[in-house]
Amino acid sequence: MLYRLNKSVLTSLMITLLAGGSLPVRADVSDNLPDIGTTAGSTLSINQELEMGDFYLRQMRGSAPMINDPLLSQYINQLGQRLVAHAWSVKTPFHIFLIGNDDINAFAFFGGNVVLYTSLFRYSDNESQLASVLAHEISHVTQRHLARAMESQQRNAPLTWVGALGSILLAMASPQAGMAALSGTLAGARQGVITFTQQNEQEADRIGIQVLQRAGFDPEGMPNFLQKLADASRYATAPPKMLLTHPLPASRLADARNRASQMRPMVVQSSQDFWLAKVRAQGMFSGAQNQLTDDMLTTLSRGNSREQIAARYGRAILQLNAKQFAAARDTLAPLLAKQPDNIWFLDLMTDIDIGLHQPMQAVNRLLAVKGISASSPILQLNLANAWLEAKQPASASKVLYRYTWANKDDTNGWDLLARACAQQGLDDEEQAARAEEMALHGQLDQAIRSLSSASALVPLGSLKQARYDARIDQLRQLQQRFKQYQK
């Protein structure tokens, strides 16, 4: 696990070296920035960005400790979409992802993809602070900073975008070789990269704080979070990783404070979902440094009503982790009784039901939520998993066929479907489901082999064989398009 974490840190460092900043520069007090986010089209079209984003995302799924928790994914994407709705120059869809890492960091890359480290939940005191990090990264994307960095290097230096991106990929597979390769391609062009990227960080701050305010968050969230980073680095032997990829000179912090002070003051309460996400991320997906502790829960229990609910929810998570299932049920039951449709509580209670060897209790609990199981992807996954635990894979498959059709990029659905097919002895469908999961992890060769095996298991000329063979052709075409990024 440590090796995987180091690769993800290195990956973020490589990507944000091109998309982030490096040296201090005096801030311009004007908020009237030109719309330069649509430049760099001659170097990289929007369609190319989307394709490259797809390629890199598949590589990251296969090499980084990405968190596939449906609840946390839904929360951060809803938070991100709220910000995107108030951003300008949006040219791509946005997708937000989580990486399990104790370091404080975030980065953006091609095609509207943004990655947050789970430790950000620990270090964000409120939702506005967490949203400020997202607003900053979203602004990197809307301003097309990575494409503009490529354009600048193609024009001014021997660093080509293919060489740089190839080095990033090499770093994902082999950190030492990747770092050496990137150092080589940057030789002689380093000053050009630094000069260009100074502007990127300033632009992302300036535009991000405006997006933050327009979305209804407290603009003070940005300078307050930056101050936390500065405080964390003051007495540390090594600065937070975020300061390596997003340097924090005094001028940047002062500029953020100045801009926030000129905006209309806002009193913003963090949502209930923020507090629940905060304790869930720390209770289920953090390392030793950022674990949910009794002291944290005690502090939350002394806060407002939302924090008190989160404290009880967090206590149930710790009890579940310790396999104290009956105690977890008793802790969570009062919350669920007051909010019977709350997906955070339903999700956890179904896990408790399964821990108590009562999977049909989980099934009945979910089926009793009228309309929600059919419309909520999270509860659909919970229901399918509960059917599997109840040894009724056919019922699970009915849910999962619909789910994977609507959510083709979710590895959770394909994994559950493969398990359901395996329990029913449907070898070809298990192979096909595993192939989709492999493809999402960038393992296209393995996916094609798995689909070929599925095709060989069904009658010659059957509809199933035609479907499997057609999917093989699609993946081979994808391989051809991705070849240019593997140089």
Keywords:
flat; disordered N terminus; four-stranded mixed beta sheet; about 475 residues; mainly alpha; single chain
Briefly say what this structure is:
The chain has 25 helices and four strands. By secondary structure, it is mainly alpha-helical. Strands 1-2-4-3 form a four-stranded mixed beta sheet, sandwiched between helices.
Task: Explain what you see.
With 487 residues, this protein is mainly α. Helix content is 68%, strand content 3%. It is built from 25 helices and 4 strands. It has a 4-stranded mixed beta sheet, sandwiched between helices. Helix 20 runs antiparallel to helix 21, helix 20 packs parallel to helix 22 and helix 23 packs antiparallel against helix 24. The longest helix is centred in the middle third of the chain and has 25 residues. The protein is flat and about 70 Å long. It starts with a helix and ends in a 5-residue tail after the last helix.
Radius of gyration (CA) equals 24 Å
Number of helices: 25
- Helix percent band: 55-70%
Q: Order the strands across the largest sheet as they lie in space.
A: 1-2-4-3
Q: Cα distance, first to last residue?
A: 28 Å
The succession of helices and strands, N to C, reads: HHEHEEEHHHHHHHHHHHHHHHHHHHHHH
Portion of residues in beta strands equals under 5%
Please tally the β strands and state the result: 4
Determine the mean pLDDT: 81
Determine the structural class based on helices, strands and strand pairing.
mainly alpha
Q: Rough shape?
A: flat
* Low-confidence region ranges: 1-38, 168-196
Mind summarizing the main beta sheet? 4 strands, mixed
